[in-house]
Amino acid sequence: MSKAIRIHATGGPEVMKWEQLPTPQPGPNEALIQHEAVGLNYIDVYFRTGLYKAPLPCTIGMEGAGTVLEVGENVKDVAPGDRVAYAGGPLGAYATMRVIPADRLVKLPKEIDFKTAAAMMLQGITAHFLLHRTFKVQAGQTILLHAAAGGVGLIMCQWARHLGAHVIGVVSTDEKAAIIKANGAAHAIIGHDNLAAEVKKITGGAMVPVVYDSVGKDTFNASLDCLAPLGLLACFGSASGPVPPFDIATLGTKGSLFLTRPAFATYTAARADLAAAAIALFEVVASGAVKIQVNQTFRLEDAATAHAALQARQTTGSTVLLP
Ligand code: NDP
Question: Rounded CA gap, 183 and 161, in Å?
Fold first, then answer.
């Protein structure tokens, strides 16, 4: 038997139920994995609350690490006993065991333990595509990053500094400001009430070529005001709620700006892109340039407590759920 956190209705953390299920069987091109660690991500909150839709009942979760127990027909790249990790759909990570398409799995190098893998696959691959593909960050550039002390945020602070960029990080507390400064951010701004004025002061009036905004509704307009002409707003999350409908003429009047809504699924749809991003992540972690900080762990069956902490902005860095 397997155990899983399932939701039968969308809502608050209390809709997550710890249930016993039959052991799933891998079909063709699939693998059965025994999880050693599961990653907690803000997207799990969107599925639990219903902001993102999934057929119910369902097991949420998009990231895990563990050992392959069994493979279905046609699976050649992984075998029972392999140490693997994955990020992205299909949903189903909040479980002791799960079945997943084998082409979504990445074999773990021996220096990456399960907990680190479960903490970093989704947030680290996201950091990779945001810094290298959504906008190609260059040495010497100054960039603006919201939620900089969070899971994606702390990885991006370190990786951007490794690329030679200067990160202005936005956070909500003094404590988080100290954390991002210890992790590569050149400047910390607390709150977004005077964001453009503070960015203007830091950049000597030049403003920034890219803003990475995962907060959404509360910060969208302030983020646009921080961009240099022809700058790019990468609006990659909605922690404060979705951005309301927007008049694109504003992009013209604010300096012929670019706006994108990057999604993990697009950037990792091709197996080659997923593998290349994972290798880049393994290298930057193995080199020590990026340290994955698992600042909270919870038992998987206590996922509701973990969700409450994440939504209350009490977490920093990455969070792992242990089956
Ligand atoms: P985080 O650890 O960053 O947690 C969210 C953080 O957002 C909080 O700690 C908080 O930091 C900040 N925040 C600002 N406003 C609010 C609010 N109203 N409620 C709650 N939090 C708020 O989470 P993750 O690292 O898992 O994800 C970061 C973001 O990146 C999420 O928005 C997520 O959806 C997005 N994402 C998008 C991907 C994509 O493909 N597009 C892939 C992966 C992640 P503070 O207190 O400092 O403000």
Answer: 9
What is the distance in A from the centroid of ligand 1 to the CA of 154?
11
Query: pLDDT tens digits for 260-276?
Result: 999 999 999 999 999 99
Nearest CA to ligand 1 atom 4: 150
Domain topology for 2-121+284-322: Quinone Oxidoreductase; Chain A, domain 1 (3.90.180)
- For 105-140, how does the pLDDT look when each residue is reduced to its tens digit (9 = 90+)? 999 999 999 999 999 999 999 999 999 999 999 999
Residue nearest to atom 32 of ligand 1 (CA): 237
Domain 139-261 belongs to what architecture?
3-Layer(aba) Sandwich (3.40)
Q: Where in the chain is the domain with CATH 3.40.50.720?
A: 139-261
On whether the pTM is more than 0.85, the answer is yes
Question: Could you write out the DSSP letters of every residue in 158-178?
Answer: HHHHHTT-EEEEEESSHHHHH
